[in-house]
Design goal:
With 227 residues, the protein is of the alpha+beta class. The chain contains eight helices and 17 strands.
């Protein structure tokens, strides 16, 4: 199952009411073997971690004590994909570096597949590196076993799928607002489980959303909030 974590019960309820996940831009760095930044951009996405019910109980999660777990069949039908984790010194990292550098030098409208290169980069992450969310160096990204939904340009009315990070940081609200009309949708049958922080919240959700009867659990993982 694919798990989307959040810190607040109200956020979880909002996802359930809307039957959708909101897209937002996420800042992503790609560095070479010498730690030089090759690409520093923000991409629109919704992120999940793939753990089954047994695995999730042993995990240390930093993104929240609430979670909605989706069936993998839904993920595949909506073109989600697991992140490709690469080592900075690997052949694939060197190849992607060459493509990204070539893309920078190539003008729009040329025969070089600029968009295709960026679509690959959107699903690529270092095995270990700097986690800007936690402000932590040498973070083990592979531990998160991440899947992503990244839309095509046509899915978001031709808005950016790659936005210079410095430009994004200056106007985060503006750029994320442009994505509000293009959420990642689901229906009640796509939900495997929902996890909450407190026992009394199980009844709250099952009363508010009868289709969740028998699917709501108290969270089982170790939650380590961002400091």
């Amino acid at each position: 199952m694919l798990n989307h974590f959040t810190k607040e019960l109200n956020t979880l309820i909002s996802i359930l009411k809307d039957s959708s996940f909101r897209l937002s831009y996420c800042s992503e760095e790609f560095r070479d073997e010498n730690e030089k930044i090759i690409s520093d951009a923000a991409h629109p996405m919704v992120c999940f971690s793939e753990y089954n019910e047994e695995e999730i109980a042993s995990k240390n999660i930093t993104y929240g004590s609430y979670c909605i777990s989706m069936k993998k069949k839904w993920a595949i039908s909506n073109k989600l994909n697991p992140v490709l984790y690469i080592d900075k010194n690997s052949h694939i990292a060197i190849g992607l570096k060459a493509l990204l550098l070539r893309r920078k030098k190539t003008q729009k409208g040329s025969s070089f597949p600029r968009l295709a290169v960026m679509q690959i980069k959107c699903f690529t992450k270092h095995v270990r590196g700097y986690n800007s969310y936690l402000k932590k160096f040498d973070f083990d990204f592979k531990y998160e076993n991440e899947w992503r939904y990244v839309p095509e340009k046509k899915d978001i009315r031709n808005n950016y799928i790659s936005l210079d990070n410095s430009k994004y940081k200056q106007a985060k609200i503006k750029y994320n607002k442009k994505l509000e009309s293009f959420p990642l949708k689901f229906n009640e049958n796509d939900i495997e489980f929902v996890f909450v922080e407190k026992e009394n919240e199980i009844r709250i959700l099952e009363q508010s959303f009868p289709f969740l009867n028998g699917k709501v659990r108290k969270y089982t993982w170790k939650y380590t909030p961002k400091k």
